[in-house]
Specification:
With 157 residues, the protein is α+β, with helices and mostly antiparallel strands. The protein is built from four helices and seven strands, in the order E-H-E-E-H-E-E-H-E-E-H. It has helices spanning 20-33, 73-84, 111-124, 144-147, and strands spanning 10-14, 43-51, 56-60, 90-99, 102-103, 129-133, 137-141. Strands 1, 2, 3, 4, 5, 6 and 7 form a seven-stranded mixed sheet that branches. Helix 2 runs parallel beside helix 3 (111-124). The longest helix has 14 residues, at 20-33. The protein is globular. The chain starts with 9 loop residues before the first strand and ends in a 10-residue tail after the last helix. The relative contact order is 0.19.
């Protein structure tokens, strides 16, 4: 039997230590979370992406009484960015969540969102920086492939 170890490197720093463009993503993700439609879970998630052309696009989770018809903030945002700017790579995504009136410290994306991030990354041929937002710090994962190391992609079809 052969073993393979899979590791992920997560960098963490106070918000003020990140570049201004990433601080803006933090702010935009939190603002987007405040606009989420989450009447059932009361778990408000927001995402903001920085595109290679400098544009910032944000979105929030959208729930629906007919589960699972809702959609996560990350997918709402990435799909909107892909529809509006189909040929512009995503450089970074910031994710924030609010529940009970408080920011969740370092929310992590679900498996479906990780898969969409991976496909977005593959499509552009460039890694996407993933920022997990806390109240006064952010954690960084350097690529979606790091979040989903044994991912399913078009080469498997």
């Amino acid at each position: 039997m052969e073993e393979q170890e899979v590791r992920i490197i997560v960098k963490s720093a106070p918000l003020k230590e990140w570049a201004a463009e990433y601080q803006l993503l933090h702010k935009e993700a939190i603002e987007a979370a405040s606009k989420a439609y989450a009447p059932y879970s009361h778990f408000h998630v927001g995402a903001a992406v920085l595109l290679a052309n400098g544009e910032v696009v944000s979105g929030s989770n959208q729930e629906n009484a007919a589960y699972p018809s809702g959609l996560c903030a990350e997918r709402v945002t990435l799909f909107y960015a892909g529809a509006k700017y189909p040929d512009v790579p995503v450089r970074a995504i910031a994710i924030a969540a609010i529940t009970g009136g408080k920011l969740v410290e370092g929310i992590s994306p679900c498996g479906g969102c990780r898969q969409v991030m991976l496909e977005t990354e593959i499509r552009a041929g460039a890694p996407i920086k993933i920022f997990l937002c806390g109240s006064d710090k952010m954690r960084l994962i350097d690529s979606a492939a790091s979040l989903l190391p044994i991912g399913f992609d078009g080469s498997d079809l």
